[in-house]
Specification:
Oligomer: single chain
Number of strands: 4
Number of helices: 3
CATH class: Alpha Beta
Largest sheet: 4 strands, antiparallel
Shape: globular
CATH topology: Alpha-Beta Plaits
Helix content: 25-40%
CATH architecture: 2-Layer Sandwich
Strand order of the largest sheet: 2-3-1-4
Number of domains: 1
Order of helices and strands: EHEEHHE
């Protein structure tokens, strides 16, 4: 199984609640429509309450970890091809402009051993 994680930062002028609401109600359906080749798509929103952050830890510079799984290399290759398509990428970027900082997004491919 191939996993791809995205560390995503919200626009500073958007509240955490509005960010999460927009992501779930608008961006998730868009991604599911444009990139249907994944087998799992989950968002992990950071809890920024003081009770969750140790005093000596730096505050993370992202607001959500998005996790996408692919059952096969072919599915992952299809994902990479789709996000390389200028029309697909333009539609994703246009939506991202409403709630997140595209240039701050970091992505990581994770190969599972289990």
């Amino acid at each position: 199984m191939i996993k791809h994680f995205f560390l995503i930062s919200k626009k500073p002028e958007i509240s955490a609640e509005d960010f999460r609401s927009y992501y779930e109600a608008n961006h998730v359906p868009l991604i599911k429509r444009l990139l249907p080749m994944f087998s799992h798509y989950q968002r992990h929103y950071l809890d920024r309450s003081e009770s969750r952050v140790a005093a000596d830890q730096a505050d993370p510079d992202f607001d959500v970890i998005t996790e996408i799984h692919f059952a096969t290399q072919a599915d992952y290759d299809g994902f990479l091809a789709s996000v390389s398509d200028p029309e697909v990428l333009a539609e994703i970027r246009a939506d991202e402009a409403n709630f997140l900082i595209s240039d701050a997004t970091r992505s990581l491919r994770i190969d599972s051993c289990i």
